[in-house]
Amino acid sequence: MAFRLPHPRDHNLWRRPPTMPGVSLPATTAVPMAFIHRPPPSVTQSGPGRKQWALEFEPTVPPFPDPLMGWTGSADPFTHIQLFFPDLDSAVSFAARHGWRYQVEDPPKRKMASKSYMDNLKYELTGPIQMEKQ
After folding, report:
1. What is the rounded distance in angstroms from the CA atom of residue 66 to the CA atom of residue 73?
2. 47-62 pLDDT, tens per residue?
């Protein structure tokens, strides 16, 4: 006789309740949506960019200006949580294991234009050529 789980894995009763980020306790309030994305490359470098994936939470409380210093503050405890993963599958499995709702944002496609030094010296006509009849 084979061992069976009490419920199939895709059944809602099998899943545990979501946990709070940073602790293993069940969530007492709603956990915000987690966004899984690949961070953009640094603006100071021309390399291919970062290969890792990041998990961040949607802001739940709008930021407010501090009346004394003028800095932007927030009462949202999830704004500073940023987790990095080596690949997309590990980020998705981590969010699913904790019971968080998540949304995956695919990185934009990069257009690589081949350029050479000769393109700098190429002469191109900017307008239509009009020839006069004689």
Report:
1. 6
2. 777 789 999 999 888 8
Side-chain-side CA neighbours of residue 90 (13 Å): 8
* Separation of CA 40 from chain center: 9
The model scores a pTM over 0.70? no
6-43 pLDDT tens trace: 545 554 444 566 777 766 667 767 778 899 999 887 77
Judged against a pLDDT cut of 80, whether residue 1 lies above it is answered with no
What DSSP designation does 86 have? S
* Residue 60 burial (10 A CB sphere; 0-12, 13-18, 19+): middle
Cβ burial of 18 (10 Å; 0-12, 13-18, 19+) is middle
Q: Name every residue whose Cβ is closer than 8 Å to that of residue 77 and which is 6 or more positions away in sequence.
A: none
Alpha-carbon gap, residue 100 to 97, rounded angstroms: 8
